[in-house]
Amino acid sequence: MTLPDPPQAILTEPITDPTAWLAAELPVPEGVVHELTPAHLDEITALTKALRTEPLPLLADREPWRALARRTMPGLSELAHSTAHRTETHIGTAVLRGLPVADLAPDEIRGLYRALGAVMGTAVSQNTRGEYIADVRDYGNGGLDNSAVRGHQTTSALRFHSDDGDLALLLCVRPAADGGTSLIASAMTIYNELLRRAPHLLGLYYNGFVYENRDEEDPPAYRNAVFGYYHGQLTCRYFLRDYVDSSPAVTQVPVSDLERHALDLFEALAARPGAATEYALRAGDLQLVNNNIVVHSRRSFSDGAEGGGRLLLRQWVNLDGGRQFPTTLCRHRYGMRKKPDARD
Amino acid sequence: MTLPDPPQAILTEPITDPTAWLAAELPVPEGVVHELTPAHLDEITALTKALRTEPLPLLADREPWRALARRTMPGLSELAHSTAHRTETHIGTAVLRGLPVADLAPDEIRGLYRALGAVMGTAVSQNTRGEYIADVRDYGNGGLDNSAVRGHQTTSALRFHSDDGDLALLLCVRPAADGGTSLIASAMTIYNELLRRAPHLLGLYYNGFVYENRDEEDPPAYRNAVFGYYHGQLTCRYFLRDYVDSSPAVTQVPVSDLERHALDLFEALAARPGAATEYALRAGDLQLVNNNIVVHSRRSFSDGAEGGGRLLLRQWVNLDGGRQFPTTLCRHRYGMRKKPDARD
């Protein structure tokens, strides 16, 4: 009689490559910053001029956007592509600084942003309307205690979490009047700490937690593994804890004390002094967050009386030749299914 | 900043006391057998005579049953009490052999059985009708693929499992024409093997699995931990796997591959050669199964054309001064809640 084989191996050695880092080891809070040059700005002008003569819908496929970017912005496209793909083996995050958001009209900003995303990888839909670009701002509908609300629609502090694509691209159009700073921590470092401090709980993270599926698609709840190990590579996806807390309304089974502990421990390891880097995004910063490697959070913010309020644009992008990982992670890696009856 | 404390410790050392055993180490397949003596049989005659003059309902409280047993069967009561409580620190099972079931009327058998249970501990209700004694026989309603059916109502092989009380008392009134043998394995030995072979999965067993709540009471599904560690003592409760497999109908969340693996591994460790003892109960055998320490199963059976078919009676009994264990295990330890509208 043979014993059954596990569906996947569990990594029992710590990660020792650059993807496992502490904030104190970063040269700057952003980790990596690439300031745009005057030549890059000239390329952006060429792009916006081309878009005026040959308009391209934001919902068009990737390929025409990528071709347009490569043609009008060869230098910036090269920088964007290499920066994006380097996050996979480096520290999992970087910032492109100095996009001229103050000098561009709203639709020009979105066009530039869609073009840069198309260079980096394949954008995926973030909702049932099939949209590639979501506004991260105060929607005025309150906080995450409301099951109809998603994190990017609030002013609340967001817990550490991952997004669905390999990369989250966050473009700061307007910072908040107060608060809203970004925090990023290496999930690989968190794994190393879990391996050292709570090795017997690792199976819980590989099995994952049940999340309410908010405003998106069937089924009403789903399981997501926090860690998966595939072909010698560890991958993380840690979705917003609030969706676990609200899942019993669907499953009729309470979240257990041990599950709560595992979630608390993960977040405490992300938030402990020295683990996460924290900084304010500036207008014109394009932040790259590799969801396979890091988790991110933000402080709560408040908008001033003037200026329209904090606005980030968000894309989820899968890298070309991106890693494979177990299907237990991230059912929405390839986007939310567009529903026929959803409004565009 | 301090990290959160776990809700309970995880045992990281193997169990080395007599509760962790292999079948080959048992002197006889039953582990411990106490044959009733002629003096015990005379005591049983005294009990049945007393019941004819002072009838006592099976649903009466424990105390009058215990008093009657102690008065009419002092020797057998002492043996039953000591045998039951020794299972806690010994191998978790024993058999009292030679109850005169062939010489007693059906209600006398149930009276004797209720009396012996009352000596050993506090019987708990096994269903929403508040019954202390359940018939384990073919109810003719088919197998466990039907969510309205419970294991004791079928002729199927039952997987390794635990029952709800500290002790399951199984009285064999009539064996099957063919099959139906009992298997018992030490859950403490299974734990030792899991600790050695799959230490990173232990958290899954401490967190437990979600079970459909069949035909019993609210809620429609609940989580049960397989192992719990409390005040230096490990306790197991492994409920019928079939109820996990059918739980997604309630929770709308599939059982994960890793959960299936953890269940498969537990059962494979119970069933592997040399782990479980197997033997046939004889008419008049009273089998004690300590659910804190062992798991049990049975082969499928078929009844012959004559004789009324296999009949075991089952009680669930909590020991006096029984162990404490985490509330994550065994929500029905103190019985199924009687529903006002259920028929007695």
Automatic annotation (TrEMBL), chains A, B:
Q: Which cofactor does it need?
A: Fe(2+)
Alphabetized UniProt keyword annotations: Antibiotic biosynthesis, Iron, Oxidoreductase
What GO annotations for molecular function exist for this entry? Answer: oxidoreductase activity
Q: Name one Pfam family in it.
A: TauD
**A GO biological-process term:** antibiotic biosynthetic process
InterPro entries registered for this protein in UniProt: AlphaKG_dependent_hydroxylases, TauD-like_sf, TauD/TfdA-like
Domain TauD/TfdA-like, chain residue ranges per copy: 91-315
What name has this protein been given in UniProt? TauD/TfdA-like domain-containing protein
* The species this protein was found in: Streptomyces murinus
